[in-house]
Amino acid sequence: MKKNILIIDDSESIREVIASGLETAGYSVVKGINGEDGLLCLQNNPDVELIITDLNMPVMDGITFLKEVRKSDKHKYLPVIILTTESQEAKKQEARNAGATGWIIKPFSREKLINVIKKVVR
After folding, report:
1. Which end of the chain is more exposed for a tag (fewer CB within 10 A), N or C?
2. Dihedral sign computed on CA atoms, order 85, 90, 94, 97
3. What is the pLDDT of residues 54-89, one digit of tens each?
């Protein structure tokens, strides 16, 4: 059975690049356009096994989204990878404190993303 991954990014082109790469690698993908939409996607797709989210998005940013996800007992340990252009240590620490599993800086390679996914989704 395919692993189901939720991608949240306000950039349609980024969502499509990530989705295409993951689908080619055999994953199933659900896409959200911001944190608020991501929460709805997660609610409607209870079999999500990993979330990849951008940090800076309108409506609800990645940190706020992550804090909301971690409030749920069901999703307390769901792996969440932050995929962003941000590289400041303070932002990384804020994400770790909110419950992020990993951090990848854009631009990224498909291979790097797949390798990180294989480490956190079994």
Report:
1. N
2. positive
3. 999 999 999 999 999 999 999 989 999 999 888 888
